[in-house]
Amino acid sequence: MSAEQVMRMVSSAPDTLPAQHQQLLGDSVNCTDLGNARRLVRVQGDNIRYCWPLATWFEWDDARWRRDPGGRIFELARDVIREVRREAEDAHAYSGRLLAELHDLRERGVPEDGDVYLEAQKAYAKSQEQVSVLNKWAMTSEGERRLKAAVELAKSEPGISVEPGGLDADPWLLNCRNGTVDLRTAELRPHRRSDLITKLAPVDHDPEAQHALWERFLAEALPDAATRAFVQRLMGYCLAGVTSEDIFAFLHGPGGTGKSTIKEAVLAAVGDYGQAADFEAFTARRHTGGPRPEIAGMVGARLVAASETEGNQKLAAALVKQLAGGDRMATRGLYQSTFEFTPQFTIIICANERPRIPDDDSGIWRRLREVPFTTVFAKPDPGVRAQLRDPSVAGSAILAWLVEGCVAWQRDGLGTAPQVEAATAEYRTTMDPLGDFLSDTCVVGEDCRVPAGQLFEAYERWCDELRLKPPERLTKQGFGRRVGSRFASARSRTGKSYYGIGLAAEPERDGCGGFDGPIQKPLSFKNYPSPEGGLRIHPSQPPHPSQTPNQPTQHPAPSHPIGDDR
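Request: output the structure for the sequence above.
Response:
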């Protein structure tokens, strides 16, 4: 038997070193950090992904790609040690096979100084060396340094890295415990790795699910049927990761009206698709150039709900418009690299007091929808709120209600409701720093005219009487800009004057300051006269409170208390 025949017999022997181990070992045992990284990928590659911009590992759990909080990947890396030990065991078995071949050669009388025997002996010696090296490497790999090195190198292996935009990329898929719902058809299908979904609603999708407590709660918290239907379409729209409506919503009302209970019940039902945010994330603040980790954490969310904790906070209008419109933006978390993402979520703010929004920012008002909550529950039952916040109680029914709302939105559009329109218009009116001044001190008419300086002096006296301070009190420049947006002006030798507006003749006698006098016509911020005569329409201004139709009415408390609320 030739040396070549011996080596062919050894290499083809059954139950010897597996092919994948031979590939790793080769002629020299691959006992390096890179070798361990490739062992990790070989064993767990189908179940792990790494996102560099998010600095996060994800693991497939048979339903979604779960975010690793920091320790799970090292548990998987410890499998590398077991893998090295298995390689050592396989190499030992392989070495035993070679030793048996040496004995067989001796029995056949093959000369020990011949080429055939020497080649077999050389192969056996090398296999023994591999066994020794692998056993030592298995012990070395148990150290923290080697584990971290393997994990770090595995990030760069082919097929492991994924971009943030690749995660949860299909906005019409909603992942549930029992499968993935295609929101375009409301059909349920099995979970798939290839969808790269990281989110999970912690309930089963059952289109027939209902819960009497949830239905009664909605009817009592939102007694107006049109408003209730709008809220269902709004919340259903939030299920889809799209921003085509270019809106954000404001749930407004006094404490104990059920608005927070609805918000929390929906967040509980949608699980990972919803995120409770600090209202500070959407407020104007001085240092806007630094990282916004709260925004980075919203990547992949569909519904972001915030509660205002303090009154009179100013909304960051530019940021909210960018997020609501789905404009691609750059962000970064603390100590992380900057990355770009496209918002897929709808913002819902829940508060007792309205945040401050510039009344002359037509872009933000075009996007805002205020849902009024006016039913105050006299004796809220905390147990009801706790049940609705527990996904195991009414979660499937709430999810079915949401999916139904999503289908209705796609079929009928988001639409609106009279109470929503009225509340939104009234909100804008209250944000107008000139509204009360104009109502208290001014008259309008085609023949009216007032010098700009005289009008501002009247405004200053009015502010002094009411003890107003900024931002409620406008500067001269801000006052002129806002009055100029409502009324025409012209300059003459005596200075600048406004046309279509004048000062009332007598001071008010109602204790509120300002002037009482003959009101020529009800003041409207939509219609104001031009110097050429006639009325000119200014679409960016809100209606005067006295002309706002369909104001929401206070409803009496229901006889059955349904929940607690802020």
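The first strand starts at residue 48 and ends at 51.
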